[in-house]
Amino acid sequence: MKTSSKTDDERLLSLIDECCDEIEKELTPKTLHRIFDCVVTENEVTVGDVTFRSKRLAETVKGCDRVCIFGATLGTECDRLLRRYSPTDLTRAMVLQACMSSKIEEVCDALEDELRAQGLKLRQRYSPGYFDLDITENKKLFDMLELKKRIGLTLTDSYQMLPSKSVTAIIGIEND
After folding, report:
1. Contact predicate 116/122, CB 8 Å
2. Residues with Cβ < 8 Å from 97, sequence gap 6 or more?
3. What H or E segment, with its residue span, contains residue 7?
4. pLDDT digit string (tens) for 2-52?
5. Could you identify which of 28, 34, 86, 148 might form a hypothetical disulfide with 93, taking C-beta atoms 3.0 to 4.6 angstroms apart as the criterion?
6. Beta strands in 12-162 (DSSP E)
7. SS3 for 64?
8. 173 contact partners, CB below 8 Å, separation of at least 6
9. Between β-strands 122-126 and 66-73, what pairing exists: parallel, antiparallel or unpaired?
10. Which residues contact 39 (CB under 8 A, 6 or more apart)?
């Protein structure tokens, strides 16, 4: 995991390095993605028979005939690590939390890099909860990809993803 800092506090830098190392050893990130044809209108993006109502998403993927829908997670061990340290070492738990946030972004970026290496031109990824794409739309993504069955990612009744360090997103694929 890449780290850069503007601090020169050696104890903090050492703790960050320890947490990043622990994450690398303990966690097994998983991703799942599929590419779908889509139809974009002014306020909606329709993928198969599933419609996402969001003007901002439609603007983001305007001109695309396909989208990549994906889920990514650091796995259940991330939540176990946080529970292990939270009661006894809050500073370590907070640093782990930050390092895990960075790690899940790295996982998403690596998936995008993999898709680009296949010759796909991608737009910015867009997740439920961004702007006007309601968080409840996550249920549609979970169903489309069977995320619980395939990578162990679940969605609570209040639309919180478990494990906590997880991402779902829609990425427009530019036409050739």
Report:
1. yes
2. 82
3. none
4. 555 576 789 999 999 999 999 999 999 999 999 999 999 999 999 999 999
5. 86
6. 30-40, 44-47, 50-53, 66-73, 122-126, 154-155, 161-162
7. coil
8. 35, 64, 65, 66, 67, 68, 120, 121, 122, 123
9. unpaired
10. 45, 46
Which residues, at least 6 apart from 156, have a Cβ–Cβ distance to it below 8 Å?
Answer: 162
The four Cα atoms 120, 139, 129, 80 give a dihedral, to 10 degrees, of -90
Structure tokens at 46: 């329709």
d(CA 84, CA 23): 13
Tokens 């796995």, located at residue: 75
Cα dihedral 87, 90, 92, 98 in deg (nearest 10): 110
- The half-sphere exposure of 36 on its side-chain side, counting CA atoms within 13 A, is 21
| Predicted TM-score (pTM) of this structure | 0.90
Residues 137 and 135: their CA atoms lie apart, in Å, by 5
Using an 8 Å Cβ cutoff, are 57 and 136 in contact? no
Taking only the tens place, the pLDDT of each residue in 101-132 is 999 999 999 999 999 999 999 999 999 999 99
Q: Which residue has the tokens 């939540």?
A: 79
Q: Tokens at residue 158, please?
A: 């209040």
The residue type at 39: V
